[in-house]
Amino acid sequence: MTDVLDFVALSLLPPWCFLYAAERLRRGATAAAVLNSLLLKHWRDEPDKREVLGQRAEAALRRAADAGLTAVAWSDAAYPAALTAISDPPPVLWARGQLEPLSQPAVAIVGARAGSPYALSVSERLAVDLAAAGLVVVSGLARGVDSAAHRGSLAGGGATVAVLGSGVDEVYPPEHVQLARDIEQRGAVISELVPGTPPQPQFFPRRNRIISGLSRAVVVIEAGEKSGSLITARCALEQGRDVLAVPGNVLSGRNRGAHALLRDGAKIVESADDILEELGMLPSAGAAGRVGAAARTGESGEPDPAGQASRSSARDPILDSMIAGEPSDLDEIAERSGLSSSRLLPRLFELELQGRVARVGGGRFVRVDSSC
C-alpha cells in the first residue's frame, strides 16, 4: 500500500515532473526515491510538502475506495505496457470498470464535438467494425465523434475505454453519465486525475497523450484547424503511433484539420479495413492466400512437416533479446531487438497471448521458458 501511496503522491506533482519520474522509474528507482528527489530539488523551501502530499494521497485513495474505483500504479502488472512507452506516462491511472481492455490492442477514434451527422455515422460504423475485429476502441467521452465511437464499440459487442479530463467520479459532460456506466460493463473509464477533480480546460489536452498512448493507431474524424483532435494526432506521431484520417466535405470547413493530416501523409480511412490493413491485421486473401496455403501444404495438397518445422525453429528477435525469468522494459527490448516501440508492442501482445512472454509490474515483460 505504501508503494501505491507514493505513486499517488507523485501524481499530485505538476505534470512537468512526469518526464523525469518516468526516466528514473525505468531505471529501477522506487516511487518514494523519485518523489524525494523531486521535492529536494524543486521544493527544498517547503519541508512539509512531503507530508501534505501524503495526506492528499491518502484522501484520494479513501475516496476511490468509497466510490469503487481502482488505482493502477506504474508498478502494477495491470498498468498498460503501451502507456509506459510514452515519454511522460501518468504515475497512476484511476479506473472504473474492467482493467483487461487497458492492455489489449486498441485504436483511438477522435474528432469534432459538434460533429455533423456524417461524422457521427462514420465514427459509429468504424467502431462497430473495429470491435467485431477484436480491437478495443479508445476515445475521450466527449460529445460528438467520441461518444459515437464509444456507442459503436458497445453496439459491436466490443470493449471501449474512455479517458476523462476530470476525476473518474466526475463524469463530463454530465449527460454522458449513463454512457460511462454502460462502458464500465465491458470496458473502462479512466483518468490520471485523482478522484474528485472537476473538469478544467487544461486537463483535456493533457489527457490526449493517454488516448494515443493506449492505442496502436489514432483515427481523426472531422477535425477543424484548431481541433483538440489534432493534439491527439500530434501526440500519436511523437509516440510512434499510426495516424489516419477520414476525408470529409471540403465546402463546410469542418474537416480542414483532418485534410491537413492527409496532405502530410496520414492514411485515408474509408472503412475499418483501411485501419486493419495499416495495423497488419487483415487476413490473407486472393493470390497471397493461395501462396500461403501452398507453402503450408505443398504442391500435392498434403501438409508440409518441413515447412512447419522451419517456422517453429525460426528465431524471434524479441524472444532472443530477452533472458528467461529476467524482466525487461520496452526500451531494453527495442534496443536489443532493433524494433521500434510501435512495432514492438503488437508483437509483444501476440507473444503474451501465446504464453511465451508475461507482463510484470512497471511495464516490463519477461520471457517464459517453455522448458520449465
Structural description of this entry:
By secondary structure, the protein is of the alpha/beta class. It has 4 domains: 2-97, no CATH class; 100-278, Rossmann fold (3-Layer(aba) Sandwich), CATH 3.40.50; 285-309, no CATH class; 315-372, Orthogonal Bundle (Arc Repressor Mutant, subunit A). It is 47% helix and 13% strand. The chain contains 17 helices and 12 strands. It has helices at 2-11, 17-26, 31-42, 49-67, 81-84, 117-132, 145-155, 177-186, 203-213, 228-238, 256-263, 272-278, 286-297, 305-313, 317-320, 330-337, 341-353; strands at residues 70-73, 92-97, 106-111, 136-139, 160-163, 188-191, 217-221, 242-246, 267-268, 328-329, 357-360, 364-367. A 9-stranded mixed β-sheet has the order 1-2-6-5-4-3-7-8-9, sandwiched between helices. Strands 10-12-11 form a 3-stranded antiparallel β-sheet. Strand 8, helix 11 and strand 9 form a beta-alpha-beta unit. Helix 1 runs parallel beside helix 3 (31-42). The radius of gyration is 22 Å and the shape is globular. 44% of the residues are buried. Mean pLDDT is 85; it is low at 284-313.
